[in-house]
Amino acid sequence: MLGALADLVLPRTCAGCAVPGAVLCSSCSALLARPRLAAPRRFPEGFPPTVAAGGYAGPVRPAVLAFKERGRAELAGPLGAALALAVVAVTRAVRDTGPVVLVPVPSSPAALRTRGRDHVRELTGQAVRELVAAGLPVTAGRLLRRRGRVRDSAGLSAVQRRANLAGTFALTGGVPAGAVLVLVDDVVSSGATLTEAAAVLGSATRPGDPPVLAAVVAATPRAAGGPTSAGDLRVVRNRPGIGPRPPADRLSGRVNRD
Ligand SMILES: [Zn+2]
Question: Of 9, 14, 55, 254, which residue has the fewest beta carbons closer than 10 angstroms?
Answer without folding.
Answer: 9
